[in-house]
Amino acid sequence: MKKFFKYTFITILCSVVIILVIFRNRIMLTYNLVHYVVSLKDNKVSYSINNMETLKTMDHKNIIYKKVNGRLQTLDIYSSKKETDKLSPVILYVHGGSWAYGDKSIPEFLSPVLEMLREQGYTIISTSYELMKDKVIFEDQVSDVKDTIRWIYKNGSMYNLNKNEIGIIGISSGAHLSLMASYSDNNHFIGDPSLKQYSSSVKYIIDFSGPTDLSTLNIKEVAPELYHVAEAAYNKDLLIDSYSPLKYINKNIPSTLIIHSKADTMVPYVNSSILYSKIKESKGRARMVSLSSSDHTLKNISQDDIKLLVTEILKFIILNSPL
């Protein structure tokens, strides 16, 4: 009997050790998450998606990922800071700016989170896309995001990237483009013919206040300079329908985290609530996180909402993209 208990104890101990070894990266990332959230308790910083703070130690800047009709689009790579023999999971960041403004700089509120992920072995890629000027170019913009993903598949081995562990974080209009790119089939939205043969599939997407029903937007508020462009668009109703992520929902779409503030007046909260309902109806995988204290730009966001935001983003990534 003593031998039985002895061997049982040894077996359990070995199992625990094996589990700790297998999941040590998740455990460490979870520990860092808890430590970071606790540190936010006395943080009085006013966060905003419009405040930019470049991540430390960018490794590759302005890499050209496509050239079409003389137009260049580029991306930046912030490599993993962890020395390992394993391929690095990828998080692709797609910026907002009403489809007409902005660049691929990392927002202030995301920088500490992404830096923490880099410490644990993730690679962050931030991409550009063509901005609207005098006509609606959703087709080109979605193609730019999909071509960025295709470029990652093509060049993954060169930069030690795990092509099976790609996730996207999209902000506002960048979230709209990311949803369109992630939900549509590989053979849709072909931009650069040289990238056509590569996949555009991703494992998960984090949608931060993305428009999903363009008819709910007040273009005069969202992008005043684009108002006349939008009004002059041929068959506006067809345009709205064709570039709605809701149209592409099915049970096989990537796992989706939806984050939206109920106080958002620029992109109404209903955009996210409808998206969540449609995904659930289609038997897809989605989680909805509702903020309550901030507007579309995160102005005046409360500490409670900051903690909720950071916790849910990291928890979602940990569960969907194991190291």
UniProtKB/TrEMBL annotation:
The lineage of its organism: Bacteria, Bacillati, Bacillota, Clostridia, Eubacteriales. Residues 75-278 form the BD-FAE-like domain. The chain crosses the membrane at residues 6-23. Keywords: Hydrolase, Membrane, Transmembrane, Transmembrane helix. GO terms for molecular function: hydrolase activity. The keyword RNA-binding does not apply. This is Alpha/beta hydrolase. It holds the Pfam family BD-FAE.
